[in-house]
Each structure stands twice: as structure tokens, then as C-alpha cells.
Amino acid sequence: MRPALVVIIAYLLGSIPFGYLIVRARQGADVRETGSGGTGATNVARRAGKIAGVLTLVLDALKGAGAVWLTRRLVGHDQIIGWVVAAAAIAVILGHIFPLWLGFRGGKGVATGVGVFLSLVPVPLALTAVVFLLVVAATRYVSAGSIISAAALPFFLWLQNVFMKPVPGFAPTMFVAVISALLIIFAHRANIGRLLQGTENKFR
């Protein structure tokens, strides 16, 4: 029962819409009516300024890290903890993208995923961050950086496991990386359409 409860808590934690709450508190507006329609840091920054965007980024990342930390604290069976952490990690990202409190319309899952993988595999995450920065610097599209870096994370995770230090619990961690990448790419489906049409907003 405890593993199932932890996964539910992770989803509810992910559902806390920090970006929405910050913009609502500062401007009395719904951030989802701006730009990309998401509750993430980039859209919050467009609506309420860079400080609000950075605060949203940090709080959303803490949701992901918090879900991993809580699961490790509450689930003590070594033989199952890897897969329970995997389930909780996916649940917290799902909560961010499909928050219960906002009619299942939330963010893109990127910052929350950063918190998850910072806790699980910081080296592949660091390599992914380099890819993100290079793509954004070259294109000025945050969405393109997010999509490409999310897709690259499983590859970097595999590289670490094969050529560097083996990753503890590689199978469940890779499962999280692949599912998270698919979720983040799915959440960016409207951005992908705008990128193809040449109408996506550039980062300035």
C-alpha cells in the first residue's frame, strides 16, 4: 500500500501549479492565456517578468527532486525501490503536465524533470543541459532546446552506464528517462506545430 500512496502523493505534488499561482498573485491573471498557454517558467517570465520565471523554475524543479527524496525516505525495500522511484518520478511529471487542480492543463514538464534527474543521474542531466543551451543559443527557441534535450537524455544515460560509471538501477532509471522524454515531447506538440510553421516565439 505504501508504494501506491507514494506515487499518488508524487502526482499531487507535481500538480501544485506554482507558475499559475505566482502570476495569479502578482497580476490576478491566468498565465495559460499567455504565449504557449503553459504554466512553466518560460511562459511565466513572458507574463510576469524574469524573476517570476526563475522562481517558477526553481519551485517546479523542487517538485521533481522532492518526489524522488520522499519516495526514497518512505519506501525501504531495496528490491522494489528503484521501480517505485521510477513510478513516482513519472507521476510527478504527469502531475505537472496534467494538474488535477487546473483541469489537467499545466506545464511542459521540463523543470520538474530537471529536479527528478538532478536527484537520479546528475551527469547525464548536465550533458543534456549543455545540449539545451547550445540549441537555444543557436535558434533562440526554448521549446526546441527542451524537445531536443529531453530526447537526448536517454542517450546520455546509456553512455554513462556503458562508458563511465554504471548507473545504479539502470533499467528503472532508463524507463523514467524514456517515458519522461515522450511526455515532454507530447506536451510540446503545439510548439512543434508552431516551429514547423515558423510562428513560434523566440527567447529574447
Helix content: over 70%
Strand content: under 5%
Number of strands: 0
Radius of gyration (CA) equals 17 Å
Order of helices and strands: HHHHHHHHHH
Largest sheet: none
User: What low-confidence regions span 5 or more consecutive residues with pLDDT below 50?
Assistant: none
Distance between the termini: 48 Å
Global mean pLDDT: 92
Q: How many helical elements?
A: 10
Structural class: mainly alpha
Dominant shape: globular
For the record, the count of structural domains works out to 1
Brief write-up:
Helices cover 75% and strands 0% of the residues. The protein has ten helices and no strands.
Describe what this molecule looks like in 3D:
The chain has one domain. By secondary structure, it is mainly α. It has helices at 2-14, 18-27, 41-48, 50-74, 78-97, 110-120, 122-139, 142-163, 170-187, 189-197.
